[in-house]
Amino acid sequence: MSNTVSESVAAGRPARMTGRAWGVLLVLCGAIFLEGIDVAMLNVALPSIRADLGLSTGMLSGVVSAYVLGYGGFMLLGGRAADLLGHRRMFVSWLVVFLVFSGLGGFATEGWMLLAARFVTGVAAAFMAPAGLALVTSNFPEGPLRTKALGVYAGTAAGGFSLGLVAGGVLTSFGWRWVFFAPVILSALILVAALALVRDTGGERPSGGFDLTGAFAITAAMLLLAYGVVRLERPGDGPGLTVAVFGAGLVSLGLFVAIERRSPSPLVRLGILRTASLVRVNLGALLFLFAFAGFQFLATLYLQELRGWSTMQTGLAMLVIGIDTVLAPTLTPRLVNRFGNTRVLFGGIAVAALAYALFLPVGMDWAYTAMLPALLLLGLAFSLAYGPLTMAATEGIEENEHGLAGGLLYTSMQFGTALGLSAVTAVSVAAGSGLDALRTALVVPLAAAVLGVIVIAFGLRTPTKAPAPAATTV
After folding, report:
1. pTM, 2 dp
2. What residue ranges in 48-194 does DSSP mark as E strands?
3. Contacts of 20 (CB under 8 A, 6+ apart)
4. Fewer CB within a 10 Å sphere, N or C end of the chain?
């Protein structure tokens, strides 16, 4: 009996979603859901953590930034390690690390303990996420089955962010430490299932070993650039140092490019960056997450600080964005099969731009019904955009580089998220305080989404390859 859909295709049998294939997909979806819900829950719990541990504003910001630094700094290395060492091995190994350090964060009694735990958790996610995406693409053959699998996968990932807000509010009411302990329980269940079900089914691994010099250079570059982005959130905090950090990051990036051109076994094959569709998709992902992260932050400030809503009320208000959890695996694959990735992605980012525009005139006396159209459209936008971004990330890329392609995509998403938060924070601070400052900052997500629409529009001129017909109904 075949263990995967891909094995069935290789053996000449009709492609279908077997029970084991569904089990593998659910395990991988569980891991990406875990990553999204982990981040969202922590954001909701920050005020309680500050009150209990007596953390300064800088230390509290560092708790969030530490994860960004670990994730952004090691993502490309994580993607390449998955291709070289095996997707399953890296997925399972770093899931264990994620589990352990999430639990250690729950036992923290000092700020530095939380910083260390969140940094290593971010590193674990940086190795785990591209391996998980590569396992999805290698277990499901290109065509309707992969489209359906990636639709379910992307919908679960997006749902983690929205549902995490509500889960964070509920868990924090029992104590902020449960925000760290709950992922441990979920991680343990996923780990047991992964050991039993998930197997490596990709093609031959790339030849050669690790380009350690290149790995050090790109990791230094990513860490420095991520730290520079984090520092943008505090425009008055040593601008000279921020410029120096960015400068050092760019120098490290230049050194990395020079190393890769001469390396017999490059960490990142530079030729992959000459794929126009890949560059366009990664830039689109950066702008889409830039806009969403900025909007989510501003909407939370509006509801909690300006309107005085509780964390639970805020989470429930934003829950409607979670319709993507239902629509992404059901509606989006059908649209992609009919219209292609690019057209659906274009529609998704355009709907997001419309949602941000509708929220722009927000007022202090707005009823929830006035906010609802924008939030519903944003949920629809995530349904239409997140899945096609994930699908397009590996389109036209050899399977032995799917880990690298996943690393590039998640790097773009992580930097987009960090840049979006920093940009709206800087604009909001510069604009003053109150509702007028918030409205000014809301222009930033709208502008990023419009720019994303323009970037993806260039792909509409490229003929879309017709999807392969489904062998059987799923």
Report:
1. 0.78
2. none
3. 3, 4, 197
4. N
